[in-house]
Give the backbone structure.
Amino acid sequence: MNPLLSKLQPYPFERLRQLFADVTPNPDYRPISLGIGEPRHATPDFIKQALAGSLDSGLTGYPPTGGDPQLREACAAWLKRRYDVEVSPATQILPVLGSREALFALAQTVVDSSRPDAVVVCPNPFYQIYEGAAFLAGASPHYVPSDPARNFAPRWDQVPASVWERTQLVFVCSPGNPTGAVMPLPEWQMLFELSDKHGFVIASDECYSEIYFREEAPLGGLEAALKLGRTDFKNLIMLTSLSKRSNVPGMRSGFVAGDAALIKPFLLYRTYHGSAMSPAVQTASIAAWNDEAHVVENRRLYREKFALAAPMLEKVMDVRLPDAGFYLWAGVPAQWEDDTRFARELLAQYNVTVLPGSYLAREAAGSNPGRGRVRMALVAETAECVEAAERIVKFIHSNT
Ligand SMILES: Cc1ncc(COP(=O)(O)O)c(C=O)c1O
């Protein structure tokens, strides 16, 4: 067996199952889960029809790994509309089967484990795939804590020079899961300068970019590069997907874009890995990337929900409306201290599931930046999210 497999940590939901194994939820309440970050709004009909309509012709041949030129063009046109960024559909874009597999595969492509002590830098808390991708690529993750005092910006400035020297890949998550924070231009500039100095690749995970609460749409990695005059996107790859934008997590469709010098070896890797997108999914993806109306409506639903639930929770927890994404990253009241105890008691008393923040972060330099926080995914319909917020308010009041 591959010995690196033993380094993989149990997924947060597995740990949650164990945490709740002996909890009996209060049967007076129907269960509400804010635990899993999976979109639950309806998939737009036109996407389903495009998928179904292409079944006759779409399943008879092996699709090329580079995807249909029409799909790459649709992705490039979206990048232009959304970020005013122009890329070559032929050399700077690749379709991927959702950003999860692409994040993983990118690490396998860029990390050279024959170099001593390879490091992959990632924020803390973070999306767990970054860590597993680093381990299986033969690198060690270095966790950079988010700073609650600076809208959860990762403390890139605190990474020691000796770590940057060995760093081959940096994961950026903006908008962040679980923090909802968008990385501003000066931080991009800092990372680009470090990348120029040390030669590492930046993977910018942007899958929550279309769900935002401020007027201005979140800054993208390629957009930041262009603003700073980096027209070749040197050492930069952005990853995005339709899962959250178009409510199709089951379709497994996204794309990566950026430095052509990285896209080329990534295509080679993917050819062997066997990650080609079904032509039927490609047709539905073209329809989805070309339409913006459903994205505007989807965002409206999230805005409505967050505008109702966030102010209720703000009164009892350390939480505020995030920049973007569909999570509330909430500090539990001081008397709880332990986020796992808070989650267990909330389930037992009010049948609401939240994810302990410590499960989404790692102990590093003596502390776990997720401790004392919980992640609440407001993915259910508005009424259910509001009911969950009401129960959490009652729970906190009745336990003080
Ligand atoms: C930060 C982050 N990146 C990537 C993904 C993967 O999403 P997908 O593979 O559906 O694009 C998720 C999914 O929840 C996520 O939270």
Remarks:
- The radius of gyration is 21 Å.
